[in-house]
Amino acid sequence: MPRETRGEAKNAHNKGPGPEHVAIIMDGNGRWAQARGLPRIMGHRAGLEAVRRTIRAAVEQGIKYLTLFAFSTENWRRPRLEVEGLFTLLKEYVEKETAELASQGVRVRFLGERNDLPAWAQAVMERCEKATASGNHLNLNIALNYGGRAEIVRAAQLLAKKVAAQALQPEDITATELAAHLYTSGMPDPDLLIRTSGELRLSNFLLWQLAYTELYVTQVLWPDFTGSDLSTALAAYRKRERRYGGIANKG
Ligand code: IPE
Ligand code: IPE
Ligand code: MG
């Protein structure tokens, strides 16, 4: 069979491996609410229903890692009432869902600068992480007070402290060593990044980890996102050819 035909046949049958790690920029809550003449916070509330649906779908699809961008280090720029409302909703969601997540075999971890968050929020996060620690179906990362640049700066500081304490030589700082000091230490990089609501930017999400991630942008607003939208994104991913700077590998 000629090479080209073989490549097409592979795509037509959709046989590429599925992604192990999916990251999502959950965007469009505000626009969803605005379109209905509702306050923005109602969009965030509806967004949490989409979170619930997506986690269930990810478990069903056998995805091993799901990383959701919930609140960025830049989102503090929003009106105080929106920020407070968001944190209240997140607290309610996490407290209400923890038992269900544990029963689905979901292990929750929060990524981001948690020391800057109020003590009650830190306590909620810790309780959820502890209660789900034995989950072994899906690793769910919730990026909260997360910024990609802040994460890399933090890793640089941790490494600098080790060098200053003579626990590490400067030449031992490799890409692997730096990655080991990120919040995602020990996890594979995302294979697929989904962004909802059409914006074509990373907004400071996982800057290091997304180096070779496949990007998928949908116009669907996050509160409307369903398991079927996830399946569509996964199917698109399976048709991609990942090259990592090499050349086409068509066997
Ligand atoms: C994403 O939706 C949720 C957060 C950033 C917390 P937005 O609130 O950004 O919604 P749009 O982009 O204004 O529509
Ligand atoms: C990114 O969305 C952050 C989250 C989804 C939590 P934003 O709505 O904050 O991004 P920008 O401001 O449009 O770049
Ligand atoms: Mg937005």
Give a verbal description of the structure.
Strands 3-4-2-1-5-6 form a six-stranded parallel β-sheet, sandwiched between helices. Helix 2 crosses helix 3 (40-60), helix 3 (40-60) crosses helix 8 (227-238) and helix 4 (80-103) runs parallel beside helix 5. With 251 residues, the chain is an alpha/beta fold. Mean pLDDT is 94; it is low at 1-14. It is globular. It has eight helices and six strands. Bound molecules: 3-methylbut-3-enyl trihydrogen diphosphate (2 copies) and magnesium ion (MG). One 3-methylbut-3-enyl trihydrogen diphosphate is lined by residues 25-27, 69-72, 75, 199, 201, 203.
Q: How are the secondary structure elements laid out?
A:
Elements (H helix, E strand, L loop, with lengths): L2 H10 L8 E5 L3 H7 L4 H21 L4 E8 L7 H24 L2 E6 L7 H13 L6 E9 L1 H17 L10 H5 L12 E4 L18 E4 L9 H12 L13
Parallel strand pairs: 1-2, 1-5, 2-4, 3-4, 5-6
The site of one 3-methylbut-3-enyl trihydrogen diphosphate (IPE) has 11 residues, from strand 2.
